[in-house]
Amino acid sequence: MTLVTLENVWKQEENQTILKNISFSLDGSSHVGMKMNEKETATLFELVCGEQIPSSGKIEREAGLILQDRSDDGQYEPLTVQQYLRFFKKIADFQKPLEAFISIFSLSDVWHKKIKDLTKEQKKRVSLFRIYLFSPEIVLLENPLNTLSDEGIELYIQALAYVQNQGIATLITSNYIEDLLLVSKQVYRYRSTIGLETTDLVEEPDGLQNEKVENEGVAPKNIFKVSCKMADKLIFFSPDEIDYIESINSVSHIRIEEDSFPTDLTMNELEEKLRTFGFFRCHRSYLVNLQRVSELISYSKNSYTLILKGSAQAKLPLSRNRLDEMKKLLTL
After folding, report:
1. Measured between alpha carbons, how far is 309 from 295 in angstroms, rounded to an integer?
2. Helix crossing, 150-165 with 120-133: angle to 10°?
3. Tens of pLDDT, residues 58-99
4. Which residue intervals define the domain HTH LytTR-type in the entry (predicted)?
5. End-to-end alpha carbon distance in the chain
6. pTM metric for this prediction
7. Other CB atoms closer than 10 Å to residue 166's CB: what's the count?
8. Residue 308 near residue 317, CB atoms below 8 Å
């Protein structure tokens, strides 16, 4: 059953457009991620919850209970975790014992600790537990993985996966696509100039990589530069200048530090041309310069992330079925 549908929704405040061209729907199995900033997130969440009326467009809402967890939400600091969650258990009329869920939300070691003494990532899991007690149909989460440690991300993803597996739809926003790939089945990107656009950042099915035609033995080329057309000129980049290449709406974007340059070459063409320069197709939508990779992180047995040198924000997904090939290339 469709829980909420937004169709060509716009929202303006004081002659300023906050959101435009917002169209998507959620059902019980939807786990949607959207890259957008704090102001856009606040407005979107209020529209979905019915706290604001759109300037134009249509919102149809069938969901009974929609709850949200914003980055700046507070908690009752003097209470222990146990006291805090028992308080909300009573309000939510949650019938099962809380103790049966402590390990799912990884709170066993802080159960009797005061909220004020918890770390930020522990507070995040407490908030998620509190929301789960109310059995909502849709949960809205803002930047849930932002500033968490690697261990904190892993534990939060485990807890969130449990919530999602209970038939609760999730709409998650973040400043980083890479975070959304860890917690969402479908990822959108919001651009203030054109509105909400879908991405092709979906995991490829197992076995697809095995069906690829192997191009072993490709002769190295002496010279190759990637060309990008910017206005009335062509810009050329040497392979060693490039951090990684990202496919957005089937357009390849050259990423060099914080800059992005679109190119007419497809990901398959770039993969073929850059393979001999140490580039590796770590995901259907990403081609990474292996010389830039500094860390490989596994948040779960099915989730891998590559961290690039020199930029803590550069995190690329690594498809599970490409892990062995990458290890072989790196002689691990």
Report:
1. 8
2. 10
3. 999 998 899 998 877 777 889 999 999 999 999 999 999 999
4. 226-332
5. 47
6. 0.70
7. 9
8. no
